[in-house]
């Protein structure tokens, strides 16, 4: 030990080690403060989401068909209530996100208002396959993960005619959104049924879209220059500049298997995890926040 103390190099090493251990005290205090405030920021964001609207996901439009099947067994008749769905043959979504911030003291959360346009068409020929059953109700449904964010419904048309919609979906599998009841007697199954739906949707953080069409095209843009693309699919093209970004996605039923996953989820709520993972979208992130600095 005496030899070590007399060794100048050993003294220096011991002094540096002592300083290193001493500095762990303020470093630990700073880390605790950062952790506490990061947790507090998450609490504030959740609180703002509860009083405003949270992360948004758009699923639809699709057509929900509720019908009754009569089964005869040993001279007894049983009435079974069933559902069938028609997904869009083509589905196009265009949305521009205007971002803004809400503050609670030193904490903030990033929100957006997305002016959204959905258009495309349905192939109604599969309705003919249900002609032997009693069709009780046919509805066009658009699911929204947090319907409090539906600030304004703009021009809505179906088959080239203006329509009005009702709140909610009328379904147990997804309750939030809006729907429109259709008259089965006036539907022409020999030609496509077009739709054009416009609405203003507010959300927090990210916007996700389910590629519900047999052929899907999604275009998102914003003046916020820091997008993080999320979901199972990256954009086929994107342009990110200091003035904002734009991105485009394109998929089809072969790459998404959306028809099978959708039917699986609608028939059993516990089997929706694969459908919930089939998303494309964007997260408006703050790339360098105070805690990272």
Features:
alpha+beta; eight-stranded mixed β-sheet; about 25% helix; about 290 residues; 16 strands
Strand proportion: over 45%
Rg, Å, rounded: 27 Å
Q: If helices are DSSP runs of H or I spanning 4 or more residues, what is the number of helices? A: 5
Largest sheet: 8 strands, mixed
N/C terminus separation: 43 Å
Structural class given helices, strands, pairing?
alpha+beta
Shape: elongated
Helix-residue proportion: 10-25%
Q: Would you identify the regions where 5 or more consecutive residues have pLDDT less than 50?
A: none
List SSEs in N-to-C order.
Answer: HHEEEEEEEEEEEEEEEHHHE
Average pLDDT, rounded to a whole number, is 85
Give structural notes.
This protein is an alpha+beta fold. The protein contains 5 helices and 16 strands. The protein has helices at residues 2-6, 8-51, 253-256, 258-267, 273-277, and strands at residues 56-73, 76-86, 90-104, 107-122, 134-144, 150-158, 161-162, 166-167, 177-182, 193-204, 206-209, 215-222, 227-231, 237-241, 244-252, 280-284. Strands 1, 2, 5, 8, 9, 11, 13 and 16 form an 8-stranded mixed sheet that branches. The longest helix has 44 residues, at 8-51. The chain starts with a helix and ends in a 9-residue tail after the last strand. The model has no long low-confidence stretch (mean pLDDT 85).
């Amino acid at each position: 030990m005496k030899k070590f103390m007399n060794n100048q190099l050993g003294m220096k090493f011991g002094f540096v080690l002592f300083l290193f251990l001493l500095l762990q005290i303020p470093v630990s205090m700073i880390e605790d403060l950062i952790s506490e405030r990061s947790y507090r920021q998450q609490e504030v964001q959740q609180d703002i989401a509860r009083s405003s609207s949270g992360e948004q996901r758009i699923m639809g439009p699709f057509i929900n068909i509720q019908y009754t099947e009569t089964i005869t067994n040993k001279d007894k008749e049983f009435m079974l209530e069933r559902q069938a769905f028609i997904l869009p043959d083509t589905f196009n979504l265009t949305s521009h996100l205007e971002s803004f911030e809400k503050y609670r003291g030193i904490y903030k959360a990033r929100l957006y208002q997305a002016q959204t346009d959905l258009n495309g068409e349905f192939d109604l020929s599969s309705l003919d396959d249900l002609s032997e059953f009693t069709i009780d109700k046919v509805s066009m449904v658009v699911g929204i993960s947090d319907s409090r964010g539906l600030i304004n419904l703009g021009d809505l048309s179906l088959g080239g005619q203006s329509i009005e919609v009702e709140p909610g979906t009328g379904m147990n599998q997804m309750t939030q959104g809006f729907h429109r009841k259709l008259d089965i007697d006036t539907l022409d199954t020999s030609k496509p049924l077009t739709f054009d739906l416009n609405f203003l949707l507010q959300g927090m953080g990210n916007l996700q879209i389910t590629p519900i069409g047999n052929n899907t095209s999604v275009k998102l843009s914003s003046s916020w220059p820091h997008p993080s693309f999320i979901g199972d699919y990256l954009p086929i093209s994107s342009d990110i500049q200091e003035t904002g970004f734009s991105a485009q996605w394109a998929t089809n039923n072969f790459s998404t298997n959306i028809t099978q996953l959708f039917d699986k989820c609608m028939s059993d709520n516990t089997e929706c995890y694969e459908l919930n993972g089939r998303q494309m979208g964007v997260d408006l992130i703050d790339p360098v926040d105070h805690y990272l600095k």
